Amino acid sequence: MMMKRIILLVLLSVGVFTFAAAQVFKGHFVNDEYKMQMVLNLYADSVAVPGMDDEMCYGYINGNTNGMWVILKVISVEKDKAVFRASCDNGSDSQNVELTWSEGKLVMKQQKDAYIKTVVNRKYVKLPKAVEFHDIALPKLPVPKVVLPK
């Protein structure tokens, strides 16, 4: 009986992780260091942007940044890598952004010279080329080791 429960638990875990891996570019992600959030669904333009009238898009990046960056076009989506085009809500800047899924985190890499900026001491400062985000639905805890009885 115990062995059946363990096997069922393992099968359910594999199913959940497979589903999660298939939808890595969908969700609500945050960066605590720069106080930013990224809400996205790169599989369908189904994200409502706060403050914009009934406009749906692929997502947005906002927080302690120079405006809200709206994801208007998805260029490519692969298993663990995606590229999209984002524009600042005031239309002043736009750029291609690459997302990479690695070890439970999304790494955002800005690809051009137009940078998303953050506010530090009341001044705009360029974000680093690569910024990590984590999914708010997933706790930042180590995965416990499972020891099966012999």
SSE topology sketch:
Layout lengths: L1 H21 L3 E6 L4 E6 L5 E2 L7 E2 L1 E5 L5 E9 L3 E8 L5 E9 L2 E6 L6 E4 L2 E4 L3 E6 L15
Antiparallel strand pairs: 1-2, 1-12, 2-5, 3-4, 5-6, 6-7, 7-8, 8-9, 9-12, 10-11
Notes on the protein architecture:
This protein is mainly beta. The chain has one domain (25-135). 14% of the residues lie in helices and 45% in strands. The protein is built from 1 helix and 12 strands; from the N terminus they run H-E-E-E-E-E-E-E-E-E-E-E-E. The chain has one helix at residues 2-22, and strands at 26-31, 36-41, 47-48, 56-57, 59-63, 69-77, 81-88, 94-102, 105-110, 117-120, 123-126, 130-135. It has an 8-stranded antiparallel barrel with strand order 1-2-5-6-7-8-9-12. A two-stranded antiparallel ribbon has the order 3-4. Strands 10-11 form a two-stranded antiparallel sheet. The radius of gyration is 18 Å and the shape is globular. The protein starts with a helix and ends in a 15-residue tail after the last strand.
